[in-house]
Design a protein that fits this description.
Blueprint: H1 16-23, E1 28-32, E2 54-58, E3 62-71, E4 85-92, E5 97-102, E6 117-126, E7 129-136
Antiparallel strand pairs: 1-2, 3-4, 3-6, 4-5, 6-7
Length: 138
């Protein structure tokens, strides 16, 4: 089976719990044990209070579309997904923003609206790699 998306490499030790969660269809976020704030991208120090006490918490998978772009051309030959594709910045209920794709919606700016509610869906690329995508909330 030909992959339509490149596999993420390398997966760093700081991000491994995120990718492990995706394999179980769970969206995991690093969360500071001291200030309680979730953050993304995964790192070993809280970007808010600089604590090193980080735990992984399952996110609700719900959020809102913060911004988007409709891509009509792929600038990377490794991406073979059908175009156009909606590139999305999603603001999760827990606070962090995450880049992804918005799927199951017409790629039309008259249809896609910032602040629209979205929810996570998972796409298994291989036995070892699952990614998170978002769709309009049901």
């Amino acid at each position: 089976m030909e992959l339509l998306r490149p596999l993420p490499t390398p997966i760093t030790p700081e991000a491994q719990p995120y990718w492990d969660g995706l394999k179980e269809n769970k969206l995991m976020l690093p969360t500071c044990d001291d200030c309680g704030k979730a953050h993304f991208y995964p790192r070993i120090i809280c970007p808010y209070c600089h604590s090193r006490n980080i735990s992984w918490v399952q996110a609700s998978g719900k959020g809102k579309l913060y911004s988007f772009e409709i891509a009509y051309r792929s600038l990377n030959r490794a991406f073979k997904v059908e175009l156009p594709v909606v590139l999305a910045m999603v603001e999760l209920e827990e606070g962090p923003r995450i880049m992804s794709n918005l799927i199951n919606i017409e790629p039309d700016p008259a249809v896609i609206k910032c602040d629209m509610p979205v929810e996570v869906v998972f796409e298994k690329l291989t036995d070892d790699c699952t990614i998170s995508l978002f769709q309009p909330a049901q």
